[in-house]
Amino acid sequence: MSNAYETEVSLGQAIFGHAELGDQRRTARLVETFDLMRRHPGGTLPNKLASPADLRAFYRLCDCDDVTHAALLAAARQHTLKRIAACPGAVLLVHDATELDYTTLTSLMEDLGQIGKGTRRGYVCQNVLAVEAETGEVLGLMDQVLHHRADVPDHETLTECRERDSRESRLWLRGTEHLLAAEKLIDICDQGSDTFEFLEHEFHSGRRFVIRACKVRKVYAGHEAVGRQCYLKEYARDLPELGRFTMDVQAQKGRAARKAAEFIVRGGPLLICPPHAKHGEHGDQPLPLYVVQITEVTPPAGEKAIDWTLLNNEPVATLEDAWRVTGWYERRWIVEEYHKAQKTGCQIEDMQFTTIDRLEPAIALLSVVAVTLLNLRDASRQPDAKTRLASTLLATEYVEVMSLQRYREVRVGMTVHEFYYALARLGGHQNRKRDRHPGWLVLWRGWTKLQAMLDGYDAANLKRCGQT
Fold first, then answer.
1. Which long-range contacts (CB under 8 A, 24 or more apart) does 161-169 make?
2. b vs e for 6-31, b when ≥16 Cβ sit within 10 Å of the residue's Cβ?
3. pLDDT-based confidence at residue 434 (cuts at 50, 70, 90)
4. pLDDT surpassing 90 at residue 153
5. Mean pLDDT of the chain
6. For residue 1, how far is the Cα from the chain centroid?
7. I need a surface site. Which of 31, 164, 216, 233 has the fewest CB within 10 A?
8. pLDDT for 67
9. Which of 88-102, 193-207, 208-222, 335-349 has the lowest mean pLDDT?
10. Could you tell me the pTM of the whole model?
């Protein structure tokens, strides 16, 4: 979130100053708590709120009936909507889910759902982030759904599954409930959203969208139901080649890194046929959409070729059209980093509450704090990064520990640029001329190490070490 507001009011005031919590004193406490947490986001709640009085006040705040997950999200959403309105270009709404594990909170076991392989308890947390399409800057948290995964009865029929309110595929629909019908907004969703129910919903939403396909689907070429039906991915592979490009691909679980991998781009119109068996609630009319397919030409030996099949409602006829859609989808990875910001950066799973009514508003607050961690990278690329003090974004002790680690002395005047690259170096970035800007993986390695250093921080001893 932009810190431009801080010339007049604090960031907490800009985001939560109008939160409706039944009492203005609660709102003031929420603002103050957010401002404290976003400057000291790491560690447990006692680390974030070092003053016992501030910590007790936060616990009391979460214990109020009017302080709910929905109330805090509504305030954060309003702030995000203002930032979207001020954005001159397209805005991506990136949807994805992660699991929040609270298995250790035994008093909550009956109130939480299954996660993992069914042996853990917690939430499926569906997040919607607003991201500026051109720059990749995160504008804010647009929505968040905390889902309790249901214990599905044995031998559930297709009809019973389709009608069940707790059906997990409904999460994608719930994530759009507060979104405007505006062409400026573009929903970006991964393979989990590839249901005909959601495709139909998005087609009629008034927004643009890009959804990565994974299902086997019957389609017609073009937007008319003429000729023979064929399978989606086979049709996409037979489309004319629009162009080629090369790029480096980072390593991921189950996939090796690639240097200068070559990709073919194809795209064109198609008509998606509804499935015969309805797993969701949808009509029977086919959907006229467009497809972009990105295929790796020569994968490394023993590796499966990278293959993206992207369904969208943006007309695709040229390489420029397909490249635009691909660029939007590539921004989806920011939500993966957001999940790391929630878990690694803010340690959102380490909170110790005894009721979900107290836990859920705390999850909402820390989820907004997590957005500010993503903005550290954005701030490092701003024109004022080499003059702006890092202490305007983080608490002084973060700057002290980082400067001691990097320079062997305390530098309270450490800039955002210096802090960012010191954090990256701590994570393994060499900062050589040929090196690119530090990636998120490197930054999170550095953040984890910094937090471990901060947890054991003895200010007096570290300062003496810095002076020797």
1. 161/279, 162/278, 162/279, 162/280, 162/281, 167/280, 168/124, 169/195, 169/197, 169/198, 169/279, 169/280
2. eeeebbbbbbbbebebeeeebbbbbb
3. low
4. no
5. 90
6. 13
7. 216
8. 97
9. 335-349
10. 0.88
Q: Which of 73-77, 180-184, 275-279, 288-292 has the lowest mean pLDDT?
A: 275-279
What is the average per-residue pLDDT within 16-43? 94
Residue 39 token pair: 């400057």
- Amino acid identity for residue 98 in this structure: T
Sequence length of the chain is 468
For CA atoms 72, 78, 79, 83, give the dihedral sign.
positive
Say which residue the tokens 């990105």 belong to. Answer: 294
**Amino acid at residue number 313:** N
Q: Is the pLDDT of residue 413 over 50?
A: yes
Contacts of residue 269, Cβ cutoff 8 Å, sequence gap at least 6 = 221, 222, 223, 288, 289, 290, 291, 315, 316
Least-confidence region, from 100-104, 230-234, 245-249: 245-249
**Rounded to an integer, what distance in angstroms lies between the CA atom of residue 178 and that of residue 56?**
33
DSSP notation for 277-342: S-SSS--S--EEEEEEEEEESSPPTT-PPPEEEEEESS---SHHHHHHHHHHHHTTHHHHHHHHII
Copy the structure tokens of residue 74: 């509504």
Calculate mean pLDDT across residues 297-314.
91
Alpha helices in 17-102 (DSSP H): 24-39, 45-48, 52-62, 69-86
CA 163 to the chain's CA centroid: 29
Residue 40, helix vs strand vs coil: coil
Q: How far is CA 109 from the centre of its chain?
A: 27
Ramachandran area for residue 125 (φ above 0: left; ψ -120 to 50: alpha; else beta): beta
pLDDT at residue 458 greater than cutoff 60:
no
Closest to 199 in 3D by CA, of 315, 332, 312: 312
Spans of all domains in the chain: 390-467
Please state, in angstroms and rounded to a whole number, the distance separating the CA atoms of residues 363 and 126. Answer: 12
> What CA–CA distance (Å, rounded) separates 467 from 83?
45
Both tokens assigned to 52: 């016992």
Residue 140: beta bridge partners? 130
